[in-house]
């Protein structure tokens, strides 16, 4: 577990952009039970989360279509919610950071760490915007 004073600014970056932090398995289940599309950002303290994943996810919200719901869990901090979110991301192995798009509770698009690491925030935003165009209303 990472100290709260370390992760708070990283979590708040997403919260300030409109993401809801999920802390329990029940939070995850409730979020994914909602109709429409739900983006789940698996946040992390790593450099690629700070440099490209969070900025890319936030930049993607400027697309013409965007998810109905924006959520985040924090790997290494919020164990229960992260574990539950990862269960719902099968067949993809646990990855952090990661960004998943669900539609009506079903996983429809996934960015794993290897899709994030070494890619620009703009490339991530464009990838997500393409998924939003396909799956969001």
Distinctive features:
single chain, 137 residues, alpha/beta, 5-stranded mixed beta sheet, 6 helices, 45% helix, globular
Structure characterization notes:
There is one protein chain. By secondary structure, the protein is of the alpha/beta class. Helices cover 45% and strands 20% of the residues. It has a five-stranded mixed beta sheet, sandwiched between helices. A hairpin with a 2-residue loop joins strand 4 and strand 5 (106-111). The longest helix has 15 residues, at 121-135. The radius of gyration is 13 Å and the shape is globular. The mean pLDDT is 97.
- Written as H for each helix and E for each strand, in order along the chain, the element string is HEHEHEHEEHH
What distance separates the N and C termini? 38 Å
**Cα-based radius of gyration, to the nearest Å:** 13 Å
- The outline comes out as globular
Give helix % range.
40-55%
Q: What is the count of β-strands? A: 5
* Low-confidence runs of at least 5 consecutive residues: none
Per DSSP, the total helix count is: 6
Give the percentage of residues in beta strands. Answer: 15-25%
How confident is the prediction overall: mean pLDDT?
Answer: 97
**Widest beta sheet: strand line-up:** 1-3-2-4-5
Largest sheet: 5 strands, mixed
- Secondary structural class: alpha/beta
């Amino acid at each position: 577990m990472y100290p709260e004073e370390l992760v708070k600014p990283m979590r708040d970056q997403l919260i300030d952009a409109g993401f809801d932090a999920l802390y329990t398995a029940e939070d995850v289940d409730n979020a994914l039970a909602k109709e429409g599309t739900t983006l789940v950002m698996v946040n992390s303290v790593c450099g690629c989360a700070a440099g490209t994943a969070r900025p890319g996810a936030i930049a993607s919200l400027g697309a013409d279509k965007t998810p109905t719901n924006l959520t985040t869990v924090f790997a290494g901090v919020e164990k229960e919610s992260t574990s539950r979110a990862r269960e719902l991301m099968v067949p993809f192995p646990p990855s952090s950071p990661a960004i998943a798009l669900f539609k009506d509770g079903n996983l429809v698009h996934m960015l794993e760490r290897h899709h994030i690491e070494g890619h620009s925030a703009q490339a991530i935003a464009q990838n997500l915007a393409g998924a939003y165009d396909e799956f969001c209303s």
